[in-house]
From TrEMBL, chain A:
Protein name as catalogued: Heat shock protein 70 kDa
SUPFAM superfamilies per UniProt: Actin-like ATPase domain, Heat shock protein 70kD (HSP70), peptide-binding domain
Any matching Pfam family: HSP70
The entry's keywords: ATP-binding, Nucleotide-binding, Stress response
Tree of life domain: Eukaryota
Keyword Nucleotide-binding: yes
Family per record: Belongs to the heat shock protein 70 family.
Organism lineage string: Eukaryota, Viridiplantae, Streptophyta, Embryophyta, Tracheophyta
GO molecular function: ATP binding; ATP-dependent protein folding chaperone
TrEMBL record, chain B:
Domain J: 58-125
Protein name: Chaperone protein dnaJ 11 like
Domain of life assignment: Eukaryota
InterPro entries: Diphthamide-biosynth_chaperone, DnaJ_domain, J_dom_sf
SUPFAM superfamilies recorded: Chaperone J-domain (SSF46565)
Organism: Quillaja saponaria (Soap bark tree)
Gene3D superfamilies assigned to the protein according to its UniProt record, in alphabetical order: DnaJ domain
Length: 572, 165
């Protein structure tokens, strides 16, 4: 059964799953952990409501400050984020860093953040630390996220006057399953049980389905479906989804995602304003951190202003004799970030292609996320859809968390007498999952955009005569070669009967259930006999822990050729 | 849960026509019970991940539509079934069966909603003498969950009488 991977129960209660849908449950709340801002929402019986912190904010900055012994996060903290950033004690952007190894370009791009991110380029987790009283206090993205979630939980508990345990979280489309386990671990550390993890645009799709249902575009079951394209660009990630909606059911046709977002726009701008920043700040002393912080805040400000005005004056003293005095206009900003915007366009086209949907068939184009306020982002989406007007029924910052709250209510078994919760999102896999075979290739067993739950099977065979063992190495991603994909885990099947190469049939089956749990099954058959020779092995993935970059390399070096597999062409 | 051991997991997955004899299960039996008992009796699985459904039940029957259904009707039927059979909406104790059911419903939908695949399927199916309308976990689950659902009142094929139990 789908036991949560890390159930660190905060009390002696049941493990959430079993009990909840019979007796009326503790309803799950929706949380949108953004790279820059977080929000919490809950179904209040008639509609979705966003919770506010003690400062009456619905959007809370995602950061944690390490000071003295007690770290404090952006939920409750009274000081402004901007001030704390200058001291090197505030850690943020954890959603970008979580579950990544130090060879990852995203980690490298994080080195100019005003805290310490060190890389050794060997495929282990990066060294991340906050400067506390002149000492580097090491931490991990999971820890930072957990501290933050504890505060969110406390805030929600105070307001809803009940203990909170179940949550629905939104995640970027491009998150690997390994990153998902890190999010789950952070939740477990915070005493939260993840009921569902939804790719962000699919949460938006659920909200859209509800709006369609309510606006009476259709009555239940009329097959006239509306195709919507959802473009979601926040600070850390850009996601695109195509969904076909009718009767409150949203079928995800295709998902596409990438690690590009407001953070890239910001870094490109900082680079543009101060081309030598990498060298200037490489020492990571208290002064450099302060300068980096000031530059960051000033650039961020300028970008925000450029959403509503055509040019902006930047006038900032970074200390150490460094001053920036410059006028930047919208065109310059768009030129500096041309590559980022082009990537966004490609993502939309890829999604349309994958879903096999023509531009003319799209009924609604929805842009959400912080970056959807940027004129260039709106323009690039509308120009793809030939000037079509954007859907305006959603608050770009609240759409994802509202969808998560709806899913929280639906998945907790809450029903609504007016039928406002008769909703369903039929999810699709954002990334392909396959195994290593035919040398250093990855053969996808479940392709991307396969409707979940899913189960697929493929047959492989041995490459050597008398090969009695073979290694099933499971990867996730779109690359053809193993090193372009994320390693999820591996196991060995032993006891293959002695036979010439190509004779034993090794069946590999992958199964993803509705809660997105992946199981990999492998068994061996000999031709002519339908029965497995050895007991079928069933392994829940991912199995690897940190340092999987290293692990993959070692595995392929040591066993790459001896325990290899090749694909068997399907018989017609 | 029966899915915890590999053998029962696989047998719950498999979908063999040979088990048609067990079709005497009353219609109102919960689908979970039905498959659970089925999986304990059927411990040996001829093909060990029989993901393909038995050919004895037609894709049209899975979706509960007539063989002349329009594309629009197919989509509608699929959504209606999803609203009751998807694992996200069923009770916790039925997740396992509903997962299998939903995958069958989806694959039926995928074939029938694609004109080419549908035509090919029709050709292959009509070459058979007749469909052996066997009971299966799917039929029982679908019927159980669909009973009382208004759509079937005006569906062209009457399920209640077409089933041979």
């Amino acid at each position: 059964m789908a036991e949560p991977a890390y159930t660190v129960a905060s009390d002696g209660e049941t493990t959430g799953d079993e009990k909840s849908s019979f007796t009326f449950p503790e309803m799950a709340i929706g949380i949108d952990i953004g790279t820059s801002q977080c929000s919490v929402a809950v179904w209040n019986g008639s509609q979705v409501e966003l919770l506010r912190n003690t400062r009456n904010q619905k959007m809370m900055r995602s950061y944690v400050t390490f000071k003295d012994d007690i770290p404090s996060g952006g939920v409750s903290s009274q000081l402004s984020h901007e001030q704390e950033m200058l001291s090197g004690a505030a850690i943020f952007n954890m959603k970008r860093l979580i579950g990544r190894v130090d060879t990852d370009p995203v980690v490298h791009a994080s080195k100019n953040l005003p805290f310490l991110v060190q890389t050794l380029d060997i495929g282990v987790r990066p060294f991340i630390a906050a400067l506390v009283n002149n000492v580097w206090r090491s931490t991990t993205p999971e820890e930072v996220l957990a501290i933050f979630l504890v505060e969110l939980r406390a805030m929600a508990e105070t307001q809803l006057k009940r203990p909170i345990r179940n949550v629905v979280l939104t995640i970027p489309v491009s998150f690997s399953r390994f990153q998902v386990t890190r999010i789950e671990r952070a939740c477990a550390m915070a005493g939260l049980h993840v009921l569902r993890l939804m790719p962000e645009p699919t949460a938006v799709a659920l909200l859209y389905a509800q709006q369609q249902q309510q606006s009476g575009h259709e009555n239940m079951g009329s097959g006239s479906e509306r195709i919507a394209l959802i473009f979601n660009m926040g600070a850390g990630y850009c996601d695109v989804a195509l969904t076909a909606t009718a009767g409150g059911v949203s079928q995800i046709k295709a998902l596409a995602g990438n690690t590009i977002g407001g953070e890239d726009l910001l870094q490109n701008m900082m680079q543009h304003l101060l081309p030598d920043s990498e060298n200037l700040f490489s020492r990571h002393g208290i002064n450099e951190i302060k300068s980096m912080g000031i530059l960051r805040v000033a650039t961020q400000d300028a970008i925000h202003k450029l959403s509503s005005q055509t040019s902006v004056q930047i006038d900032v003293d970074l200390g150490n004799g460094l001053k920036i005095c410059k006028v930047v206009d919208q065109h310059e900003f768009e030129e500096v970030n041309r590559e980022v915007f082009e990537k966004c366009e490609r993502l939309v086209h890829q999604c349309l292609r994958d879903a096999k949907i023509e531009i003319e068939d799209v009924s609604d184009v929805i842009t959400v996320g912080g970056c959807s306020y940027i004129p260039k982002v709106k323009n690039l989406v509308t120009s793809i859809f030939k000037g079509k007007e954007l859907y305006n029924g959603m608050n770009p910052l609240e759409a994802a968390v509202s969808g998560a709250a709806l899913e929280g209510a639906v998945a907790s078994g809450v029903s609504d007498p007016f039928g406002t919760l008769d909703l369903l999102t039929i999810q699709a896999t954002p990334l392909a999952i396959g195994i290593r075979a035919d040398g250093n290739n990855v053969v996808p067993v479940i392709p991307r955009n396969t409707t979940m739950p899913a189960r697929r099977e493929m047959t492989f065979t041995t490459v050597h005569d008398n090969q009695t063992e073979s290694l099933i190495v499971v990867y996730e991603g779109e690359g053809k070669k193993v090193d372009e994909n994320h390693l999820l885990g591996y196991f060995k099947i032993m006891g293959i009967p002695v036979a010439p190469k190509g004779v034993p049939e090794i069946d590999v089956c992958m199964d993803i259930d509705a809660s997105n749990v992946l199981r990999v099954l492998a068994g061996v058959r000999m031709p002519g006999s339908p029965k497995p020779i050895i007991p079928v092995m069933e392994v829940r993935m991912p199995t690897v822990d940190d340092g999987h970059g290293w692990c993959a390399e070692a595995l392929n070096k040591t066993y790459g050729s001896t325990l290899d597999l090749v694909m068997v062409q399907p018989k017609v | 849960m029966f899915a915890s051991s590999p053998t029962s997991f696989l047998s719950a997955v498999s979908f063999q026509p040979t088990t048609a004899l067990k079709s005497s299960t009353p219609r109102n039996t919960s689908s979970t019970k039905f498959v659970a008992s089925y999986s304990t009796k059927e411990t040996k699985t001829p093909h060990f991940f029989a993901t393909k459904m038995a050919s004895s039940i037609s894709l049209y029957e899975i979706l509960g539509i007539s063989t002349s259904a329009s594309c629009h009707e197919i989509k509608t039927a699929y959504r209606k079934l999803a609203r009751v059979c998807h694992p996200d909406v069923v009770a916790m104790n039925q997740k396992e069966t509903s997962t299998n059911d939903f995958m069958k419903i989806h694959s039926a939908y995928l074939t029938l909603s694609n004109p080419e695949k549908r035509a090919q399927y029709d050709r292959e199916t009509y070459n058979r003498p007749k469909w052996n309308i066997s009971s299966s976990s799917l039929t029982s689950a679908t019927i159980a969950s669909m009973s009382g659902f208004p759509v079937y009142a005006h569906a062209s094929r009457n399920w209640e009488t077409d089933q041979c139990w």
